[in-house]
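debug: dumping io for the single-chain case to check the tokenizer round-trip. Nothing else runs in this session.
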Amino acid sequence: MGVAVHVGTRADPLAIAAGGTRYWANAGDLTTEAYRQIDWAVAGTFSNLRVRVTVNAATASSSVTLRKNGADTALTLTVGAGQTGVFEDATNSVSVVAGDDVHNQIIVGTGGDISVDLVASLFTNTDGVFCFQQTCAAVSLTVASQTAYMVINGRLASGQTGESNQQELIRSSIVASRFQMHVSANARTTNTTFRTRVNTANGAQSVVVGSGQTGRFVDTTNTDTLVDSDLYCFQYVTGTGTQTLTVHMLAVGFQTATNWQELIVGNAAGLPYTNNDETIFLKPVGDLGFTTPVTDETNRKMALDKITAVSNLRIRLNANARAVTQTCTLRKNGADTSQTVSIGASQTGTFEDTSTVTDVDVADEIAIAVATGVSASSATIKWAGLTMRDVGLPPNSRNRRRRRHHRRPGRNQSMAV
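debug: decoded output
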């Protein structure tokens, strides 16, 4: 039995208007429910729904609810008028089966806006750890005969024709399934193909969006088998013509019998920065962001809500004009851990700590920090990642006695690939 952390984050807290309803996914939200529904791949149980509210001007209560097949479930929580912080339903749970539509709903009370940057829950599956990797945004495809690529988790972007910078480095054995995507508008008169990619070759999963077709498209038949060191990303190929197709989400399910989970924070377009001798902070999963990097860790750190251990801190830079050494470090409870990697002057590629394992308890908060060094030149991050080893407690475990685990010995290694 495995317990996965199913997380949706925004790089910057999202302000939701008083009385508004939003539907939440891995890297963003929408007002249209269908565009955030995930066709779930396996049977299991959701529990421990939680939300982080950073600003709350509402004068009435707000709510967050797990939705299944377009209806509210018992997994729900209330945020009181004016309250901020992390709120959790640690009592209720909801069972799902393959084919159920699953997502989260936020309803804001009257009187003022609230800002949310994280919605998460735990998912228990009898066959190991299962979670969805999901990249989201409203993106229009208008270029004729274009082949482009996207990260598998975080923020969606179009026109990224270089595959290497979108490929996530896998560090566990995975069966990837239920590849799916949503199209809200389509004026194209030719087919558009969306697929998975494994090590620069076509994966087994794909969907074809025909001329004028809209809605959700799911490959319910095929799977990709991934192993340690594989490279994985999404691809789309447009046909002739420059008409517009609007896509809102691509997603794929990851099942690991070893009870490991890949945590990925990304943006297909990248996060550029020119910060001089500052530390910028990234969430450990979800939306990387795309505008101003954040130097305040407060809304970047998050708890995984389970006892676990994380390893293989890695980061991908596709551009780097900074003639100084930078460091990327895993943070826990506002302090550096020994899990760190160096990025040499002007170096690009994937940089990884291949040996350090960091224990993480139920309430420990983790983030990723990049110390930029003394330079005002630019660099761009495409994604960062961690591998989470499931050594945790079952859902609804906050009142159980915590257990400690020992770090595997080994020295830090920095590897550019």
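debug: round-trip ok. The CA atoms of residues 85 and 109 lie 16 Å apart.
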